[in-house]
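Journal club prep — side note

Before the paper discussion, L.F. wants everyone to see what a predicted structure for a comparable chain looks like in token form. Sequence:
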Amino acid sequence: MSVCPRAARATFALAAALALLLAGCASHEGIAPAVAERSPQQYGAVQTPIDWPREDWWTRFGDPQLDALVAQALAGNPQLDAAGARLARAQAAVAGARAALAPRAQLQLESTWQRFSEHSLYPPPLGGSSEFTNTLQVAGSWELDFFGRNRAVLRAALSADRAAAAEAQAARVLVASAVVRSYMQLAHLLEQHQLLETAKAQREQVLELVGARVRQGLDSSVELHQAEGAVLDLRRQLEASSEQAELLRHALAALLGSGPEATRTLAPRAAGFDAPALPQAIPAELIGRRADLSAARWRVQAASAGVDAARAQFYPNVNLLAFAGLQSLGFGHWLDLGSRNLGIGPALSLPLFDAGALRANLRGRSAELDAAVADYNATLGDAVREVADQIATLRSLQRQAREQQAVQASAEAAFELASQRYRAGLVNYLSVLAAQTEVLAQQRAAADLRARRTDATVLLMRALGGGFEDSTGTDRNMASQ
């Protein structure tokens, strides 16, 4: 059997013409996404220079122990393992979508024993007999993606892959910032614990002096009970401080992917580094510097390609089919040249009536695109707000620190004066201890402000993207559109 190339071409042309003729049988008119994508400018972002954080921004603290903890967390945190698995799944989806664009071939080998009916298509002597039907052939197919459905599916898979890659990086930024915040909070708690120990020792001195004055009849038991209560309260605060420090160590161990014993002896010292120069306005380039924004943008692209794929399903599906091999009845002539079996031709399928399934699918895909755009808009709004919040907090903390320094200087001057008056015999030691209590209170306030400034700086680094560099192709120039 031979195949006429001219006849094949004519058949193919006829199928293509019929496909175009019948393309209007199913309609997608009236179905379109409804949510518009917002720009950074709509949230007040402008083009402004800023010192963006480096990928290893935490090294600016100059603490090798912190650097090692962050490296350990980035290597062993379970959240990052989950993000890596999602990325691998997205990459597999890309490979599957790309395979749909290529021709396919398969080898078929069949040998089937069959009794042929005496009253069917085959007359005697075949009818009523039993024989083996044998087939050995190679069959192939190629879906001719005239209307771009498979290409749209591939674009969706590629966008989802890039979104997964950005989300994996976003997870790394979150883990690194969580480690740094927990480490610095632990350092602050340990510093406060030392100040509480100093305050307790000072209150115990007060208690001894009050006890002596009560025995001399200079004070009543009221003052004694007040002094005892102050010591007991500081002991309670010390115990609460120890509990918080232990819980923070447990949190750090979980971030590292380890058990509580891994951080039981961890005792960091409070440290800090200056925040980058604060911009006067929110930088529009933020859109390309945050992994979560990049991921949300790629999710929009994936959903948009999904709409294109759903719309393409309204059009004909054309496949080119071909097969070549050997086919015979029985084994005697199976491998003879006369048993060759060849065929080639197009196959066309067109939805005529589906009870609205295609339109429902397109509406669903359009709704997914609306949801992706809305999620992107919300993520962009949150990103702008987070940056604005941390900038406002850091500016306020700078002003508070200046005021607190003045207050602390005044308290230290009062303490020095009380000490001089005590040495001159003008006041008793209780006055000195009272002045020292105020100094200790101001030292604790200064430590709180330093801790808040460090924490706000870490949060600003995270809000500015944590050193993320988009390598997936997101266009940062759209921030200026």
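L.F.'s comment for the group: The chain is about 60% helix and 10% strand. Keep this in mind when we get to the figures.
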